[in-house]
Design brief:
With 458 residues, the chain is an alpha+beta fold. It contains 14 helices and five strands. The chain has four domains: 107 residues; 70 residues; 89 residues, no CATH class; 181 residues, no CATH class. The protein has a five-stranded mixed β-barrel with strand order 1-2-3-4-5.
Amino acid sequence: MNKLVISAAGVALVAVTLLASPVAVAQDALTMNRLLDLVREGQSQDNRENQQREQRFRAAQSEQQTLLNEANSRKRTAENLSQRLEGEYDVNEAEIAELSETLDVRLGSLKELFGVMQQVAGDTRAQFDVSLTNIQYPDRGEFLEGLAKKIGSSSQLPQLEEIERLWFEMQREMVESGKVVRFTTPVIDAEGTEASTEVVRVGLFNIVTDGKYLNYQPSTGSVNELPRQPEQARFTDSAAQLFGASDGKVRFGMDPTLGGVLGSLVARPNLVERIQQGGLVGYLIIALGIVGLLISLERMVVLGIASRKVSAQLASDSASNDNALGRVLSVYEENRTVDTETLELKMSEAIFKETPALNRALLFIKIISVVAPLMGLLGTVTGMIRTFQAITLYGTGDPKLMAGGISQALVTTVLGLTVAIPMVLLHTLVSGRSRRIVQVLQEQSAGIIARHAEKNRA
């Protein structure tokens, strides 16, 4: 059964509760007397609870006072400690300032010396990091870095042993720069495989193995085989000779710029790469030059044979049909009885028949000598168009973007001139041989006509 609970809120709260739960009120508060008894019981219980709370508050108040007193005591102790520490701090600050001033006075010029040492240690470490000797002595970089940091901090000074080691490392670097040393170190070949390889270091300039130049990577501390060796065989041969020599003098292609000249030799394109830079126009120029060269060679051979046969015919008394002069002389033999004018026409006709065979393809060689530089100019123009397109899209910040167009412009011009100049010379040579044969034919024809005319007048 539910019970009706009445607190110290009074009769009004009881009324609200009765309205909210009429069934419960009807069960528990059957009469007004019972309701009055319940109210009195609630009031008496509230009074008891209030008295208990007051007793707990009085007991807690004495405890809080004790806690407050303890807190105040700790506060006074902390304030006293703070004042004492502040005094000690001020005394220490004054003492540190006095000692620092005394240290600066006593150091004097040594302070400048340590500053120079710090700078020298930093510069030396930067030089050692890119030096070939760092392959053999990789631990000196940490020492120099630690020495520079130690000198940079005002609380520490370098020891005499550290100063001596700095001098020793610099002296060793100078000594090693004049040595040719053989040692074994891991080397990464062109295929990316690392293997322990015997190498030869030439001072600070080059490091080689059997016929190959190597490259030192300071960022990774590794030794790599150059992906491409110099095209000139004398350099690789000298590297092989140096690697195989045990004593004496050896001619060696040394790079005094510590890799600059070697890098330019490696990056220099070979003949095939030069031709590829010319693009389609370059290939057309080369094809045209090959055709012109073949035609010129064929003409030189044919005209050379014809010239020898004509020379042989000049020394012979009988006409032969295997050469141009013999065929012209045969026309005279067939027309001995005709008059001079008719003979002259017959001989001119025979010479005209021989001339096309002697001058065949000479005009084509001359055309090639004219067209080749024009095609080179065409390649130059197209290359410059590519260059300006790259400038329009990407600007002039990266020259590599313009290198393709510039290469085509220059290479096609060179190819055009390379084809045109020999073609001009070959055309001159071949046409000279042809004119010589024609001139012999004309001279012999004129002599025959002159003798025939004298004979008829007689």
